[in-house]
Amino acid sequence: MAKPRTGWRCQQCGYGAPKWLGRCPDCGEFGTFVEEAVTSASVAVSRVVVAKPIRLGDVVSTNASRTATGIPELDRVLGGGLVRGSLVLLAGEPGIGKSTLLLQAAASLSSGGSSVLYVCGEESAEQVKLRAERIGAADGIMLLPEVDAAVIEATALAERPDILIIDSVQTMVDSSLDGVAGSVGQVRACAARLMHLAKSEGMTVLVVGHVTKEGTVAGPRVLEHTVDAVLSFEGDRDHVFRIVRAAKNRFGSVSEIGVFEMGERGLVGVANPSAVLLADRAVDVPGSCVLATVEGTRPLLVEVQALVTPSYLQMPRRLAVGVDNARVLQMLAVLERRAGLVFGQHDVYVSVAGGVKIAEPAVDLALALALTSARLDRALPAGTIAFGEVGLTGELRSVRHTQPRLAEAARMGLDRVFLAAPSGGSKAPAGTRSISSVREIPGIVGS
Ligand code: TYD
Ligand code: MG
After folding, report:
1. 85 with 21, same domain?
2. pTM, whole model, 2 decimals?
3. Is 50 exceeded by the pLDDT of residue 42?
4. 407, CA 20 to 30 Å: which among 11, 143, 215, 322?
5. 38 C-alpha to center of ligand 1: Å?
C-alpha cells in the first residue's frame, strides 16, 4: 500500500509544515506539532457532491439499545449499560485497575452471551490469563495480543465481536504514520479507526487510555472529543476506593459515579461507601468534621480533617489534600476576617480522609468547622455533620440536594447537622442546626 502523504500541523494555531518542528514559527508554542494525513485540496474539491439534508421530523428515533455489563457500579456510570456502536474511553493512571475492570466486564458480558474480542497490546496472553484466573473470568473471551491498528481492524471485521476491547490505545500503532506508539498523531489516527468500527460496523468499542499524574501526555486528552463517553478512574493505588466517573457521556448523565474497592479477586463494587469512609474515624478529636457531599446523585459522607500547629516558618505552611488549596486559603481568610480566628502564626494542613477529592462548594462549611475546631483545639459535638457554601462576607449559602444529604446522615446515625438557614423564611428540617454566617461557628463549637 502506498504510504499516504503526511504533513505536520501546529495544534495551537493550525500552522502547517512539511516536517516536525519543535517550536511553531507562527504562534511560538513548543511541542505542538502533530503529524496528519494530507488530502490535497484539488482532490477534495472534485469530489464534492450536493448532499440532501434530512428533515428533523422525518428522523426515526431509535431507543439506544443497551447491554448491561453485569457490573452494577459500572452500569450505573454508563447510564444503564453499553450502547451498541458506541466508543467508550476508560482513562486513568497506570496500575489503578483499568485492565482489571475491563476484564471483569468482558467476563460478565461473555457469560451473558455477548462475543468479546480483547486486544491486549500491553500484555501477553499469558499475563491476561493470570489476571483472568485471579478474578475468575470466563474462558469464552477471545484474546488478541496485537498492536498494529490495521491488523486489529481487519481481525475485528473478520471476527465481528459484539464488544471490542482495546488495552491500551497507547500501544496501538498505525504503521502508515510516523511517530512512536502513544504520540498524539498515532493516538488520534488509531482512535479514528476505532470510531469507524463502532459507527459503521455497530461494534461496541471500549478503549483503555493512560493518563499521567499531571493528566497530560499524548493520549486520552486528545481522544476526549472523538469518543462517545469518557469514564475516568480516580483515586490512587494506596487508597481504599477507586471511583469511576463519567467525564463525558453522549448516552447518559455525567453525574454518576461507581465506587469500587480493589480486592484479592479484582474490583468489588461498594454499595455503602459512607460506612467504609467513616469506619476508621476517631470521634471526639479536634479538627475533624464530617461532610455530606453529593457525587452525581449519590450522597456520600466523608471526613474533612484539619491540623493547625504553631508555625516556625516565616511563611506559614498551607497544605491541602483532597480539596482545592485555593478553597482552604479562602476559608482561612474568611474565618480570620469574619469570625476573628487568626491563623497567621500557624501551619495549616487539610485532608479529606479516604483519598476522596471534593470539588463542590458545599465543602466550605465542613472545612470551616474543621479549621475552627483545630484552631481552638476543641472537638465538635459527636454526630456533627455539615454542608454549605461560605461566601466572602462570611455568609452561608444553601447547596443543592439537601434532602439526600440529610437522609444519608440520618442513615449513618449522624444527627447534629449544620447547614445554611433556608432562604425565604421556610423552616429548617427537624433535627438540624441552621446557621446563616460563619460568625456563628465559634459559638457552635463552644456549645
Ligand atoms: P491493572 O488492572 O493491571 O491496572 P491498569 O490496567 O490500570 O494499569 O491492575 C492494578 C493493580 O491491581 C495491580 O497492581 C494489581 C492489583 N490487583 C489486585 O490487587 N487484585 C486483583 O485481583 C487484580 C486483578 C489486580
Ligand atoms: Mg493495564
Report:
1. no
2. 0.78
3. no
4. 322
5. 41
